[in-house]
Structure prediction request, 1228 residues.
Amino acid sequence: MNFFTEPLTLLTFFPLLGVLLLLFIPGGQKNALRWTALAVSLITFVISLWVFFLSGLYDASNPDLQLVARHPWIQVAGWNIEYHLAADGLSILLILLTTLLTPISILSTWTAVEERVKEFMVFFLLLETGMLGVFVAQDLFLFYIFWEFTLVPMYFLIGIWGGPRRIYAALKFFLYTMAGSILMLLAILWLGIQGGTFSVPQLIEQGGIPANIQWWLFIAFAAAFAIKVPMWPLHSWLPDAHVEAPTAGSVILAGVLLKLGTYGFVRFNIPLFPEATLKAAPWIALLATIGIIYGAAVSYAQTDIKKLVAYSSVSHLGFVMLGLFALNPEGLAGAILQMINHGISTGALFLLVGMIYEQTHTREFKVYGGLWKLMPVFGTLYLIVSLSSMGLPGLNGFVGEFTILLGAWGAGQSGVFYWGGVWFAAISALGVIMAAIYILYMFQKMFMGPQGEVVDEVKKHGHSLRDLNWREIAVIAPLILLIFWIGLYPAPFFDLMAPSVNKLAETFSAAALALR
Amino acid sequence: MTTEALIWLIPLPPALAFFLIVLFTNKNKALSHTIGVGAAILSWIASMIVFARALGVEHLGEHPFKSAVNWLPTGAEWFRVGVLIDPLSAAVLFFVSITIFMIFLYSVGYHNYGQPAGDHDHAGLPPHGATVTEHGHTHVVPSVEPMYSRFFAFLGLFAFGMYVLVISDNLLTLFVGWEIMGLCSYLLIGFWYGKKSARDAAVKAFMTTRVGDVFMLLGISFLYSATGTLSFREIFTEKVLHVLQTVPSGVFGLSAAGLIGLLLFIGTVGKSAQWPLHVWLPDAMEGPTPVSAMIHAATMVSAGVYMVIRMFPLLSLDAGTMTVIAFIGTFTAIFAASIAVAQNDIKRVLAYSTISQLGFMIAALGIGAYVAAAFHLVTHAFFKALLFLGSGSVIHGMEHGVLHTGNHHVDAQDMFNMGGLRKKMPITFWTFLIGGFALSGFPLITAGFWSKDEILADAFGHGHMAVFITLAIAAFMTAFYTMRQITLTFLGEPRTEEAKHAHETPWTMTTPLVVLSFFAVTYGWLGIPEHFPGLGGILPNWFHDFVGHTLEHVPEAPAFSWVPLLTSLFVALGGLFFGWFYYRNVKSAQEDVFQIGVLKNKWYFDEVYDFLFIKPAYWFSETFVSKWMDKTVIDGILHSFGIATQWTGEKIRRWFDLAVVNKFGDMVGYGTKDIGKGMTPIQTGRIQQYMLAAVFAFLLVSLILYYFLTAA
Prediction:
């Protein structure tokens, strides 16, 4: 295998190289371990930029899968499993998000992770390979391996470096997602054996799956993805996992791992089972809308910052699902951009929460208060990220939510939501109001008003709250930059995905027409 | 530079100022305000140049300045955003740039620039004054605002939002500016975040307007999916409008135009504080300064009216929508005026008066009086800005008195603590008088007369008698409470020691007052109807000609009639007279017959909303969804699943594992035992363990089944 003719192979497995390096560094040399991991993840990021932009190998105006690496792999008993990687507009942004968030997360652990640094970094880089693999795998079986593979490092990240109830949370996370995957595995096997190939593009091209079977396969795949997203009512693992996970784990969990679910829908469910997708659209929209309102309502009732953010993810990802199943270019593009936005905003929010947690060791925001005065930089950044998360125009969240609303309204009019119509768009818009309530509530409790007791608590231990240092600002700065960039001029991001999204919407509307 | 390029540049200086101040100069007060005021001047100059060039274009309505760029791809098409200066936006740009410039200048004085830092001042609380020793005397002087720089940063961001809104050629960027201003009003109302009332008011303002915004956003989505564009000039073509009028919306039997119009209008109801979403504006007066009060009361709220004027060609397609608009506007006009009569806080009176005047504009638009609505929008912006800044000057002067006496229990905003200020603060008094007379519609001289008269004339001329009579009564009340305010504040003798020691404010504060009072008078002369007895025709009715040409079909001015003119004269002069006549003798709030509970308590809207919406919403969130659904139902199902698995596992263990497996091999038994031991520290581990076993078993069996089934 030549790495340079197969850039995606290089990209996906480069973090593993870092793992090898780390294994040679003694566990006591924490800084060496940190710098190595950071360097490897940064190089991975550079590679991803090189692969997609600088090398000229990837043509963003081409809607098809590119950078194909394809070799026969397991071929026994009529099974035709291949090593098959490729990327297109549906995955490129998610790949870049992964390679960006990993070094940021590693940098955020500099002082937060002091124990077993070596293992931590190893798991982190393993996780990166797993996530990248999910986004580039075009063979169902290979995809499944990467998919399950991401569970393991995350399980340990939560289970070893997590909070007091970490073991419970880790197990819950692991089992919940495992349980969902089983059905998908059965569906994958059915598809691979019936279709004679596990190659996704090939299966899509072949088509011809009877409608009633499509329906069952759709449900099987959806079970796995819906838990991962998580869609209401399968969300209850998420708050536990987030609360117990270490900061970097939360960032990756919210930033990338949840997107594996939504990505699964757009990469597999929608193109593979178009007729079932059409049938399911209003039902998914219903669950998504419930999730939007439900997540927002529960968020408001939380007093733990991380829990609040976790539940707000349920709400935000409801928007993503609503956009995806609007099945028109606006909805799909908005949903994909919103995946990125959520990764950026929620990732940044978790990073900031981690920074204050390192100083105060509490996440109960009721004990906070008046922080803006003590930590002006922190307060301002927190405000920007919060506003981005609640979809303020001019920042990234709005562009995604607005495009999704356009799509959802369009789907209500065009009949994709053959029942419910425009009401899904109308009701989900309520979530926008509710987001403002819980976000402002949190911001106000933490940053405004009289000084909270936590300030004295910290003083008792002989410290005083300090504002962010340069490392912490460096951690958050790229995300802030993206928040503004996407909010003010999103065109370059849409450009990257537009051809593939349009193609998907087109093939889909063709399938939808055939059904009618 | 081309005019188009210049238009693009207008919003930039304040935005840059925001970032410069926040990132670099926030420690340096002088530099921060220099950057802020400098940016405001740059934008103002650019706006004036654009305005002057717009005047020079013949048929600006048909050939406006416009330019657009690709912003967001939607399918195969691009969503383009850009700038547009047509007569309407040129007229609005004119007053917006002047008022914003004045606000920046005024803030320098209002926040006590040049004064020493306070003795006990904290960020997040208003300055309390500083003790200085001069010539052996110790006395308390006003102290500089601790977050001085931050204020200019927020103000810059606000100006950016307003400019974006005005120069937008499409609804989307208009909405962006709209929301940025919403954010700024949140930040500025909550500027003194140490005060609970300010925090609550900030949230209330943001949430209430956001309710409207969400409907507006839905309207925008619908408009886009119906027409494929959000650009004003593309929507306002015969073809597109015809489609909108004929296509049914599928909701409540409305046409697309009807539904879109209503949804957009709800946005305005929130932003321009119309009934029933008016509740946030009076509370916004908790905001630290009359400056911020002014920006949301005189400038930002204009945005809502500007939007409906902008969307008039679409709104006017549906008669039902227009009726709703006319009703809301008319009702708000009289409803808010009735509350204003009973308020004692100088800023609150102005707040309700703003709501009421915005109602006039909305009502005018609802009856199709396009030009009159725009005209009143501009004149109102001038005189209401003047009044708010004037009230700020009064409060500032009173605070001076409070510092002098040291009695901090005296409310510097309560008009019953004032009186006789005309002698102490002459510039403030005369400019306030001009503003107040303009608001009351004092005949012939003031701008308010001409614009209000035009609304009444339109209502009468087009036969909307209910609107005409209601607005006339509201106008009477307006003149009455305005004169009440002037009398209580400036006339008579000082009622308190503090009022005696009030002090005229520095030039940075009085200059804006003078500039604005100039426009509060002269701007009205640009819109004198052609057939007005005596004066008509001396000056051309420039405003009507200019702004009217924004529309494809220039609206006809109504024929002249004596009835509305005499009505205007009567209500303005009558209201002013009675206001003066009654209140010149009122010494304290107890003597005031208009302190009626229902008016004082704003018709109990806050209480009703609390009962109908706020409390149920909290219950829904905290009790229903969080406690019952999430913790009880969803977790309950999970737990019962866990218990069932555990039960099954227990049975398997007893009947299969122990009975069968153990007998066959100790290995397995010990293995299980070890796993069990390993898991004992985990509280709920056992459930999970069995679940895992079940899952793997299921997987294995399925795999085998599949293999055999498909192989065969």
The first strand of chain B starts at residue 65 and ends at 74. Strands of chain B lie at 65-74, 77-85, 130-134, 137-141. Confidence is low (pLDDT under 50) at residues 681-685 of chain B.
